[in-house]
C-alpha cells in the first residue's frame, strides 16, 4: 500500500487539496494502479528508445511574424479578478524586512 | 447526406427547415437523453438563414452548406460556452475557434450545440461528466459510452446528422460502437488539434461520428488538412471521399489478431464480428490469422502515458486567467483550493497518478518505461501491416453496460482494451456497426490500418455496412 504521506506529497505537487476520505481513496487507487502496471516493468526494453509521439515528426515552426492577436480587454474578459489591465492574484513574493 | 445536400442545392428544402427539424428532435429527446451540454438554437438558426441566403445567391460554401452539426464540448467554439463537462469551466467562453470549428463554419455547417463527455474526456461512459450521464438511445438504462458519448448518442437518436468527437484511447470508437454509429479516430496529425482542449497531446485526435460510412467519410474529408497553428500537424495530402468501387476487396488481406478474440469477449460480440469477417471473405478478402502480442501491455502503457500527460495538460487550470477561483491569502493555496473545487474525482485521480509516474523518484520505472513499451507496441503494429492491409477486431469486448455498473476505476479503464493500441501507435481506426446482441444493443467492429490508410478503412466499412444495414435509416431517407 502506498503510504499516506506519499499521497499527500503528490497532492501538494499537483496543487490539490484533498479531504481525508480522498487521501484514503487515492491511496487505494494508486496502489491498485501501480500493481496492475507491474507487468510493464518486466518487459525487456533494452533495445529500444522511448516514443514520445506516435508519428515521427519534426516540429514545424511558423515564421515569426506579427499577426492578429487578442486584445488586452478580451484576454482579461474571463479573468476571475483583473485590475488595471493585469490579472490579479494573491501575494506571491513575501515582503523583505 | 448526399441526398440532403442535393435537396438543399435544388432548394426543395431550406437549411432553416433542416435545422428546425433537428432542434425539435433535441427538444423532444433531451430531457431523457442528455446528449448536449449547450444547445445554441438561436445561433444555429441564424447560421441556417445565412446559409439559405447563400444558396439563393448561388454562393454555397460547400456541397454541405446548411447541414447542421454538433461539436464535443472540449473543442473551442468562439462565443459559445466550452465546459469540457467540468465545473472548473462551467462559464468558460472561448475567445477563438478551434481550427476544426473554423473548418465547419467555412463549409457552411450550422453548429447546433456542444455535446456531453466525461470531464476533460477522462472516461468511457460520460458518467464522469459534471452535467450528468448521457443515456444510450437504444436502452435508457445503459451508458452511451465515452468520452464522446454525447456526440455518439445525438447522432444515433437522430438529434443531429453528424458530429465531432475526440479520441485519446477509444473515445470516439467505443461510444460509436455502443450507440450503433460510425466513428473514426484518424491518423495522428491528419486533423488539427489547435483549440481542442488537451487531455494527452501525444494521443488526442479529433474525428467524425455519423450514421453512415459515407457521411463519416464526407465529414473527415473536410477535417483532414495541415494546420500551421498545430506543431504536430502532419504534412499530409487532402482526403477525397472514396469512390465506393468494391473490386478492391478481392485479395485484400485482413489480419485477425488472436489476442482480440476468445477469453473475456462476449460470445455475441465475437459472433457478430466473425460473421462480418466471413462476409468479407465471401467477397474475396483473405483472412490472415495474426498476433498482436503487445496488446497485453496496451492498457497499462496507455494509462501511464495518459495520466502523465493529463497531469501536465491540466496544470494550466489555476484560477488565474479563467475558470473557478476560490480566494485565498496566498497564491499556492488559491491554486489548490480552486483546482480542488473545480475538478471531479476522476480528474483528480488521474492527476494524482500522473504526478506520481512523473515524479523524480518514479519517472524511470514508470513513465520512461511506458514510453519504451510504446515503441514495442508501435513496432508490433507496423510489423503486422507488412503482412496484411487492414486489421479487424471487435471495437469493445461487450455491448453498452448499465449505468453505474463499473464500480472501480480499473474496471472502467478496461473499456479501452481493444482501442488504445491505435492511439499509442498513431494509426487510424474506425468503428462500424456489425449487428446487435439479443437485447437489441448495437455491436461494433473495429478496422485498423497503417498510417494515412483511412480510405481503405472507409471502403471496408462500407461493405460491412452494406451487409448489416443502417439502423433506422437517416433523416434524408425519409424526405
> What CATH architecture of the domain at 2-250 and 466-478 in chain B do you see?
Alpha-Beta Complex
Q: Nearest-angstrom radius of gyration of chain B?
A: 21 Å
Oligomer: heterodimer
Mean pLDDT of chain A: 88
The biggest beta sheet of chain A reads: 2 strands, antiparallel
- The shape of chain A is flat
Which percent bin holds the helix content of chain B?
25-40%
| Total strands of chain B | 13
Biggest sheet, spatial arrangement of strands of chain B:
1-3-2-6-8-7-12-13-11-9-10
- Summarize the largest interface: chains and residue counts: A-B, 50 and 77 residues
In CATH terms, the superfamily of the domain at 2-250 and 466-478 in chain B is Amidase signature (AS) domain
Return the structural class of chain B: alpha/beta
Helix- and strand-based class of chain A? mainly alpha
Describe the structure.
The complex is a heterodimer of chains A (97) and B (479). Chain A has 97 residues and is mainly alpha-helical. Chain A has a domain at 4-34. In chain A, 37% of the residues lie in helices and 4% in strands. In chain A, strands 1-2 form a two-stranded antiparallel sheet. In chain A, strand 1 (82-83) and strand 2 (86-87) form a beta hairpin. The longest helix of chain A has 17 residues, at 20-36. Chain A is flat and about 55 Å long. In chain A, 15% of the residues are buried. Chain B has 479 residues and is an alpha/beta fold. Chain B is built from 15 helices and 13 strands. Chain B has an 11-stranded mixed sheet, with helices on both faces. Chain B has a two-stranded antiparallel sheet with strand order 4-5. In chain B, helix 9 crosses helix 11. Chain B is globular, with a radius of gyration of 21 Å. The N and C termini of chain B lie close together (12 Å). Chains A and B meet through helix 1, helix 2 and helix 3 of A and helix 9, helix 10, helix 11, helix 12 and helix 14 of B.
Amino acid at each position: 500500500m502506498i503510504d499516506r504521506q506519499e499521497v499527500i506529497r503528490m497532492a501538494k505537487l499537483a496543487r490539490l487539496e484533498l479531504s481525508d476520505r480522498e487521501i484514503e481513496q487515492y491511496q487505494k487507487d494508486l496502489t491498485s494502479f501501480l500493481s496492475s502496471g507491474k507487468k510493464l516493468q518486466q518487459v525487456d526494453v533494452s533495445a529500444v528508445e522511448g516514443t514520445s509521439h506516435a508519428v515521427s515528426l519534426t516540429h514545424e515552426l511558423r515564421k515569426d511574424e506579427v499577426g492578429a492577436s487578442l486584445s488586452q480587454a478580451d484576454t482579461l474578459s474571463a479573468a476571475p479578478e483583473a485590475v488595471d489591465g493585469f490579472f490579479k492574484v494573491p501575494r506571491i513574493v513575501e515582503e523583505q524586512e | 447526406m448526399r441526398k440532403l445536400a442535393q435537396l438543399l442545392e435544388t432548394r426543395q428544402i431550406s437549411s432553416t427547415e433542416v435545422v428546425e427539424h433537428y432542434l425539435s428532435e433535441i427538444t423532444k429527446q433531451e430531457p431523457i437523453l442528455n446528449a448536449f451540454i449547450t444547445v445554441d438554437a438561436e445561433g444555429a438558426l441564424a447560421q441556417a438563414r445565412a446559409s439559405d441566403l447563400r444558396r439563393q445567391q448561388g454562393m454555397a460554401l460547400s456541397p454541405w452548406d446548411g447541414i447542421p452539426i454538433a461539436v464535443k464540448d472540449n473543442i473551442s467554439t468562439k462565443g459559445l460556452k466550452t465546459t469540457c463537462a467540468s465545473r472548473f469551466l462551467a462559464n468558460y467562453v472561448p475567445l477563438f475557434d478551434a481550427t476544426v470549428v473554423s473548418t465547419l463554419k467555412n463549409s457552411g455547417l450550422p453548429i447546433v450545440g456542444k455535446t456531453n463527455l466525461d470531464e476533460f474526456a477522462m472516461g468511457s461512459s460520460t458518467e464522469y461528466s459534471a452535467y450528468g450521464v448521457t443515456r444510450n438511445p437504444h436502452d435508457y438504462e445503459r451508458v452511451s459510452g465515452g468520452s464522446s458519448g454525447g456526440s455518439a448518442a445525438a447522432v444515433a437518436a437522430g438529434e443531429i446528422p453528424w458530429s465531432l468527437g475526440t479520441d485519446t484511447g477509444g473515445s470516439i470508437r467505443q461510444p460509436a460502437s455502443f450507440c450503433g454509429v460510425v466513428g473514426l479516430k484518424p491518423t495522428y496529425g491528419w486533423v488539427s488539434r489547435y483549440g481542442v482542449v488537451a487531455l494527452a497531446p501525444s494521443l488526442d485526435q479529433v474525428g467524425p461520428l455519423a450514421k453512415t460510412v459515407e457521411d463519416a467519410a464526407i465529414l473527415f474529408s473536410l477535417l483532414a488538412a495541415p494546420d500551421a497553428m498545430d506543431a504536430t500537424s502532419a504534412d499530409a495530402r487532402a482526403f477525397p471521399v472514396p469512390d465506393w468501387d468494391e473490386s478492391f476487396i478481392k485479395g485484400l488481406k485482413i489480419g485477425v489478431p488472436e489476442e482480440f478474440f476468445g477469453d473475456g469477449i462476449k460470445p455475441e460480440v465475437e459472433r457478430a464480428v466473425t460473421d462480418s469477417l466471413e462476409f468479407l471473405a465471401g467477397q474475396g478478402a483473405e483472412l490472415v490469422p495474426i498476433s498482436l502480442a503487445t496488446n497485453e501491455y496496451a492498457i497499462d502503457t496507455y494509462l501511464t502515458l495518459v495520466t502523465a500527460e493529463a497531469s501536465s495538460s491540466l496544470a494550466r487550470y489555476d484560477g488565474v486567467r479563467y475558470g473557478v477561483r476560490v480566494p485565498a491569502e496566498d497564491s499556492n493555496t488559491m491554486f489548490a483550493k480552486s483546482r480542488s473545487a473545480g475538478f471531479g474525482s476522476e480528474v483528480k485521480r488521474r492527476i494524482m497518478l500522473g504526478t506520481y509516474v512523473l515524479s523524480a523518484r518514479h519517472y524511470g520505472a514508470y513513465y520512461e518505461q511506458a514510453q519504451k513499451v510504446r515503441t514495442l507496441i508501435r513496432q508490433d503494429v507496423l510489423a503486422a501491416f507488412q503482412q496484411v492491409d487492414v486489421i479487424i477486431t471487435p471495437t469493445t469486448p461487450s455491448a453498452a453496460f448499465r449505468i453505474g455498473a463499473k464500480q472501480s476505476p480499473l474496471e472502467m479503464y478496461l473499456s479501452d482494451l481493444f482501442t488504445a493500441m491505435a492511439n499509442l501507435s498513431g494509426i487510424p481506426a474506425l468503428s462500424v456497426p456489425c449487428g446487435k446482441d439479443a437485447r437489441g444493443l448495437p455491436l461494433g467492429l473495429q478496422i485498423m490500418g497503417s498510417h494515412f490508410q483511412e480510405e481503405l478503412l472507409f471502403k471496408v466499412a462500407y461493405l460491412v455496412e452494406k451487409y448489416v444495414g443502417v439502423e433506422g435509416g437517416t433523416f434524408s431517407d425519409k424526405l
